[in-house]
Amino acid sequence: MAKPKTPAASAITTRYLLMPDHANGLNTAFGGVIMSWIDIVAAMVAQRHCEGIVVTASIDSLSFKAPIRIGDHVVLKASVNYVGTTSMEVGVRVEKENPMTGKTRHTTTAYLTFVHLDENQKRVAVPELKPETRDEIRRYKNARLRTEARKELITRIHENN
């Protein structure tokens, strides 16, 4: 098994320019475009962590907090928050940046789960995660709580069916 990795080892920050073809009728970002960018950057982080094939298993949470306007820079910051046996949570923070002033604002938060697969599309182990910084440890603990809550909810739903 691969040695443990820090979240920083696979983290990615990328940016896009919000263009008119990315906007809705209000001249703000179309949510589906932002969702797509989130999934892409999160998948790249998961691939970097596993050094292998990953697939999106779920988007566990996606919250839009503020609009992004045409001409804004869209900054996506993603890192692995938590790993299980064959899956991992990747968190993505989206900010808008005014390119004229440099002012930024948090606009979107998302948590996605990815599964690590081998060349036969069978689940394989994810390298362990070794959070080091205060923020990495906080994100790890919060992600573990989200993972446990999600598993309990699934169990309770199955018990009611």
How would you describe this structure to a colleague?
It contains three helices and five strands. By secondary structure, the protein is α+β, with helices and mostly antiparallel strands. It has a single domain, classed as Hotdog Thioesterase (Thiol Ester Dehydrase, Chain A), CATH 3.10.129.10. It has a five-stranded antiparallel sheet. The relative contact order is 0.21.
Break the fold down into its secondary structure elements and pairings.
Layout lengths: L6 H4 L1 E6 L13 H20 L2 E12 L8 E11 L3 E11 L6 E14 L16 H27 L1
Antiparallel strand pairs: 1-3, 2-5, 3-4, 4-5
**pLDDT < 50 runs, ≥5 residues:** none
Strand count, sense and closure of the main sheet? 5 strands, antiparallel
Shape: globular
Strand content: 25-35%
Q: CATH top level?
A: Alpha Beta
How do the strands of the widest beta sheet line up side by side? 1-3-4-5-2
Number of helices: 3
CATH topology, which one?
A: Thiol Ester Dehydrase, Chain A
Rg on CA atoms, Å: 17 Å
Helix % is: 25-40%
- What gap, in angstroms, lies between the N and C termini? 38 Å
The structure class reads alpha+beta
Domain count: the total is 1
Which CATH-level-2 architecture?
Roll
Relevant terms:
32% helix; 5 strands; 3 helices; 161 residues; alpha+beta; five-stranded antiparallel β-sheet; single chain; Thiol Ester Dehydrase, Chain A; globular
Brief synopsis:
With 161 residues, the chain is of the alpha+beta class. The chain has a single domain (7-160), classed as Hotdog Thioesterase (Thiol Ester Dehydrase, Chain A, Roll).
